[in-house]
Amino acid sequence: MSAAEGPLVVGVDTSTQSTKALVVDASTGRVVASGQAPHTVSTGAGRESDPRQWWDALREALHQCGDAAHEAAAVSIGGQQHGLVTLDAQGDPVRPALLWNDVRSAPQARRLIDELGGPKAWAERTGTVPGPSITVTKWAWLAENEPDAVRATAAVRLPHDYLTERLTGEATTDRGDASGTGWWASGSEAYDEEVLAHIGLDPALLPRVVRPGEVAGTVHAHDELPFSRGTLVAAGTGDNAAAALGLGLRPGTAVLSLGTSGTVYAVSTRRPADPTGTVAGFADARGDWLPLACTLNCTLAVDRIAALLGLDREAVEPGAGVTLLPYLDGERTPDLPHASGLLHGLRHDTTGGQLLQAAYDGAVHSLLGALDLVLDADADRSAPLLLIGGGARGTAWQQTVRRLSGRPVQVPEARELVALGAAAQAAGLLTGEDPAAVARRWGTAHGPVLDAVQRDEETLARIAGVLSDAAPLLERESNRN
Questions:
Q1: Of the candidates 63, 7, 56, which has an alpha carbon nearest to the alpha carbon of residue 30?
Q2: pLDDT tens, residue by residue, 246-301
Q3: At what angle do helices 239-247 and 435-442 cross, to 10 degrees?
Q4: Residue 357: HSE in the Cβ half-sphere, 13 Å Cα cutoff
Q5: With 90 as the cut, is the pLDDT of residue 404 above it?
Q6: Contact status, residue 62 vs residue 8, Cβ threshold 8 Å
Q7: Cβ proximity of 39 and 49 under 8 Å
Q8: In this structure, what are the phi and psi dihedrals at residue 289, rounded to the nearest 5 degrees?
Q9: Which residues pair with 116 in a beta bridge?
Q10: Can you tell me the distance from the alpha carbon of 4 to that of 33, in angstroms, rounded to the nearest whole number?
């Protein structure tokens, strides 16, 4: 390892499929070491993971970083949002964590909305109208379906909270991740006692919300990890808030993140409250807000279509008339938790490449449909869209976003933006800087800008028409057996 110019920090991204760790020079943003280890997700009706796998993956990823991790002065965890982690009195998982993309709690989501004042009241109260991804609905599902698990639960955490607590021995979270639970009030920035009482969740089971810039604790599990005793631990945050830090986002800049799920978001100084439920009014990790819309089906769904067709993911072909709504896991935006994929307009001369392009079009249409709602009214809608995530470097994804948005697209050269954002948060503990300013100093958003092309209004209108006409089919609960 070459000499670093400043202190070293560690940023972690514990995502749905794996945990990644970066050791970063806090002065320059240079990544001096990295590691990665996988974890598994159940298949079938639910999406669950054993939190202990996340800890094992974190240990493995850090050990891959070698001596550089031992030299780090601070660490921060960015993690997948919304997952319900239930722990017993010994701190062990009561059951596997219910993940963000587990949609079994759709009936509980509908019931909670009705029981506590309707969509507008929820949006004003928590910033978000709860869908099945939101943690409050998962607790309600658990209480209804596994009451013994609820009775055994002595602590409730989010995925990043679980790892931070194992690092420090302290029960903490941050405003960014707490804002995705449905039991944190965005107006008062505190846990909502009425919501918690309604779902039967004792607030004593929840972690303390650490303020932006506050130290969450120090590493106490140094015998299991390659950290020195007393290494500082930042609050951490949810993955989207961490990526916003990693990009050094300023208000008004739109981000499209193309991962297992797809998201569109922007930093705002105004507290969001969308009664339609399309935009989640999340907090960011700094003190501002992060209005966000999420689709469950993005790169994973398109890759699945490519695999079914026996095609490379880039083997798209132009062609009008065919529409594919790739809602393979239900959908969150639009709110269709029971939907399945839908194909319309198939002809004898339709090619596999045209079907694959239609899958890209369907996925991007869902994201762009929420973009105007995410952005403040005074945002510059001609500015480049920042394209990040696993799909951002794919030519087919880039060209589809350009064609359907009509806007220029910028692809940051920096990779692993969630881990970089966590590293910037850790660096901010050492320097006293705003983590977003740290990331801007590191130049993480720099990258090529692809010019705008004419917006494909015909394709957008066709997809919207099929979506509208197929509503009864898409809203019907299907039998997966």
A1: 7
A2: 999 999 899 999 988 899 999 999 999 999 888 999 999 999 999 999 888 999 99
A3: 50
A4: 19
A5: yes
A6: no
A7: yes
A8: -130, 160
A9: none
A10: 11
- Whole-number Å distance between alpha carbons of 220 and 240: 27
* Amino acid occupying residue 26: A
How many CB atoms are located within 10 Å of the residue 284 CB?
27
Which residues on adjacent β-strands are paired with residue 85? 157
The angle formed by the CA atoms of residues 97, 159 and 58, to the nearest 5 degrees, is 105
Q: CA distances (Å), 198 to each of 46, 136, 238, 274, 422, in order?
A: 24, 10, 25, 22, 34
Task: Provide the residue type at 173 as one letter.
Answer: T
Size of the chain in residues: 481
Closest to 26 (Cα-Cα) out of 434, 471, 424: 424
The tokens describing 157, both together, are: 């955490």
User: CA 305 from chain center: how many Å?
Assistant: 23
Catalytic residues: 239
Residue pLDDT, tens place only, 227-241? 988 899 999 999 999
CA distance 36 to 404: 34
Are 109 and 122 in contact by the 8 Å Cβ rule? The answer is no
- Separation CA 307–CA 328 (nearest Å): 14
| Beta-carbon count within 10 A of 422 CB | 38
Instruction: Reduce the secondary structure of the chain to three states and give it as a string.
Output: CCCCCCCEEEEEEECCCEEEEEEEECCCCCEEEEEEEECCCCCCCCCEECHHHHHHHHHHHHHHCCHHHHHCCEEEEEECCCCEEEECCCCCECCCEECCCCCCCHHHHHHHHHHCCCHHHHHHHHCCCCCCCCHHHHHHHHHHHCHHHHHHCCEEECHHHHHHHHHHCCCEEEHHHHCCCCCEECCCCEECHHHHHHHCCCHHHCCEEECCCCEEEECCCCCCCCCCCCCEEECCEEHHHHHHHHHCCCCCCCEEEECCCEEEECCECCCCCCCCCCCEEEECCCCCEEEEEEECCCHHHHHHHHHHHCCCCCCCCCCCCCEEECCECEECCCCECCCCCEEECCCCCCCHHHHHHHHHHHHHHHHHHCHHHHCCCCCCCCCCEEEECCCCCCHHHHHHHHHHHCCCEECCCCCCHHHHHHHHHHHHHHHCCCHHHHHHHHCCCCCCEECCCCCCHHHHHHHHHHHHHCHHHHHCCCCCC
How far apart, in whole angstroms, are the C-alpha atoms of residue 60 and residue 400? 37
pTM as predicted = 0.88
Say how far apart CA 294 and CA 315 lie, in whole Å.
26
Best CA proximity match to 105, nearest among 13, 163, 1, 181: 181
